[in-house]
Design goal:
3-stranded antiparallel β-sheet, disordered N terminus, Multidrug-efflux Transporter Regulator, Chain: A, Domain 2, 2 domains, 3 strands
């Protein structure tokens, strides 16, 4: 796990750079961290380091506050819902993959049973496309 943290640290942006880039006061970024909206990683010297993923999340936060006037409590609810929706999307994709695999396996098993129990074994039927 330590190697993973140092890898993130190398790819991070310091709070001053992020504040300047997004025209924010560093205290605003600290506030977002304090209320749990952002969770930047830390360097060995305990400096906040913001990853590209943190910056994407910050952009959502800033859009919600600057353009839509959403307060911090509302942002927290929206971000939690976004995270849950992303998790649900992954679960749905996983479930679809599982069902497809089960259907394919069931289809293959049915074909094997038909061939195995046949009086005269024949190759499975093939679809032939006729082009005119």
């Amino acid at each position: 796990m330590a190697a993973r943290t140092s890898k993130k640290a190398k790819a991070g942006y310091m709070i001053s750079a992020v504040a300047e880039l997004y025209k924010l006061h560093p205290q605003t970024l600290r506030l977002y961290e304090r209320v749990g909206l952002l969770k930047p990683s830390r360097s060995q010297g305990n400096t906040r380091l913001y990853t590209d993923r943190d910056l994407e999340r910050l952009e959502v936060i800033l859009t919600l506050t600057r353009e839509l006037g959403v307060n911090l409590a509302g942002i927290e609810v929206i971000l939690n819902m976004r995270d849950k929706m992303a998790d649900m999307q992954l679960q749905m994709e996983s479930f679809i993959t599982f069902v497809r695999g089960e259907l394919a396996r069931g289809f293959n098993a049915t074909n094997e049973r038909r061939t195995r129990n046949a009086i005269v074994r024949a190759a499975p039927p093939r679809v032939v496309r006729i082009v005119k």
